[in-house]
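Below is how a single chain appears once it has passed through the pipeline. First comes the sequence as given, then the structure the pipeline wrote out for it. We keep one example in the README because the format questions we get most often are answered faster by looking than by reading.
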Amino acid sequence: INTSGAHAHIEDNTFTNIKRGVFTERALGTIHNNEFDIPTNDLIPTANRGITAIFSHGQKISSNFILNGYKGIEVFSGSNYTHVLENELQREVGYPRNTGIEFNGCRYEGTEYNGGIVSLNDITISDEEASLGVSIINSPFIRVNENSIDYITETGVGDNNAGISIINGLQTTVLWNVVNATAGYETDPNNTGILDISFNSFYFCNSM
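Resulting structure:
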């Protein structure tokens, strides 16, 4: 499904054997209760997505189930609120820097209803290729709270995995998240629960 400049409600759809599920540009509305099954064979990192929202003008992305995708949910250059809530992502992508939920280049202004929220999502990762659960890049005023991120691979674990990664964020609030991993991830010091290379973030009651 591809929409541009629309007030769209995309709900209760099933997508199988796809490269990209939902793509919206300059849209507002909801993306709710959809199922996405994205094969990992013939992976194209620039294309494989469950949900992509570009220049979001106010969207709620909630209660979707996404199996794989180089990026499960991608929000790029949002300028009005984008709330990513209660989604389930199961990931076995096997390609470096694959990401469950990513906000990149957004321009939020700092209030709950004009900012980014990543909340109550459940992300399970069963590969070891520098995998990220939640990634915030060059985006201010995002709240990341009450997400569960589980790395479940037992053997052959690689490095540079991060449950929550924040690069060049500003006033990111990170609360009550849980990042779990098997003992295998402890063997490499470059595997982290939370990686923060940014400015003026606030952390409270996260568990790793």
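Residues 151 and 181 are 5 Å apart (CA to CA).

See the next section for the split statistics.
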